[in-house]
Write a structure and sequence with these properties.
8-stranded parallel beta barrel, 3-stranded antiparallel beta sheet, TIM Barrel, globular, alpha/beta
Length: about 350
């Protein structure tokens, strides 16, 4: 019998049957604690063959597989993340003031759907604590991005972003302006192109003394027209690119889990097709120039390859770690390198948008 492409990898096969009975946020906290203290069992992180090397955002990436925001909100494990085989990571979302987020339970596994729903609400320890850890935890040669968000109770969300850019532009490798969270009062207000236009103008002024690349993160459940309007504003202001896409408030009919009615953002396999379609549309709009980070439902090397062919320079994952474990990163890299070689590509850059712009 052929193993599922979404099956746990390595020692996680032994752990997952036990871990799945833990409350999801408890299981996540345990995994993060083990990682931050260097106690996570060794994983087969895989090598980084030259075919996987990427030059983007003015940075060198050993491979294009990154950890999405949300896993390490407070940058507590920033120094340990390279051990898992990632080519880069994004920590946060970070808000100016610490905030507790929404009441628990607020994270739900949809096991039969290889998905999750979260309504965390940007729980984090705030700008000062996270900035201190970023300064202490950065590893040379491992790009580290910061996901920026406004406080839920803020009466001036734009000023929150301005403040965060001022704090993190000097210490981050790149910044992501998260305007796509469905779980907070201010989470999606800047998906309005007019409001986004004014916000980006202010953020570029706040970043004037630095060259730190900035990206805008979109939601997965936008229509193509809505996504293209946001992308047009982003690119007109000269930002480096976009992250496509965040979680979705939509609920596909294909969902089978009894948790599917929970409120929050849906991630994992069910949003793969929609997020990849948005990615391709934005690549067609922007041409070869913008840096696009493809995220949403990446579990395998074939998934990563599909995102790259649709237009992604880099990809991110998170939910795959829940179901496949940390060994998934090494497996994805091996599969991706083999697919690139099979099709005659000498590097990731040669395949970017090949299925969209050709």
């Amino acid at each position: 019998m052929t193993a599922s492409p979404y099956a746990p990898v390595g020692w996680y096969r032994l752990v997952w049957p036990i871990l799945r009975h833990f409350e999801p946020e408890t299981a996540h906290g345990l995994a993060l604690d083990l990682l931050r203290h260097g106690l996570l069992p060794p994983v087969c992180a895989g090598t980084n063959p030259p075919v996987l090397a990427v030059r983007a955002l003015g940075l060198d990436f050993a491979n294009p597989v990154g950890l999405a925001a949300g896993f390490d909100k407070n940058a507590v494990a920033a120094r340990q993340l390279p051990r898992l085989g990632f080519g880069f990571a994004e920590v946060g979302g970070v808000t100016p003031k610490p905030q507790a987020g929404n009441p628990r339970p607020r994270l739900f596994r949809l096991d039969g759907d290889f998905a999750a729903i979260n309504r965390m609400g940007f729980n984090n320890q705030g700008e000062i604590a996270v900035a201190a850890r970023v300064r202490a935890g950065r590893r040379p040669g491992f790009p580290l991005g910061i996901n920026l968000a406004s406080n839920t109770d803020s009466d001036n969300p734009a000023e929150d972003f301005v403040r965060l850019v001022g704090s993190f532009a000097p210490i981050a490798d790149y910044l992501t302006v998260d305007v796509s969270c469905p779980n907070t009062k201010n989470g999606r207000m800047f998906q309005d192109p007019v409001k986004l236009d004014d916000l980006l103008r202010r953020l570029l002024e706040a970043r004037a003394n630095y060259r730190t690349p900035m990206l805008v993160k979109l939601a997965a459940d936008l229509t193509e027209g809505e996504a293209l309007a946001i992308a047009e504003v982003t690119l007109r202001h000269g930002l480096a690119g976009l992250v496509v896409a965040n979680t979705s408030a939509a609920r596909p009919d294909s969902l089978t889990s009894d948790k599917k009615a929970e409120r929050g953002g849906l991630s994992g396999r069910p949003i793969f097709a929609a997020s990849t379609a948005l990615l391709a549309a934005i690549r067609r709009l922007g041409g070869p120039g913008p840096v696009l980070v493809g995220v949403g439902g990446v579990f395998t090397g074939a998934d990563a390859y599909a995102k790259i062919r649709a237009g992604a320079n880099l990809i991110q994952l998170y939910t795959a770690m829940v179901y496949r474990g940390p060994g998934a990163v090494g497996a994805i890299k091996r599969e991706l390198a083999a697919l690139l070689a099979r099709d005659g590509f000498t590097g990731v850059a040669d395949a970017v948008g090949d299925g969209t712009l050709s």
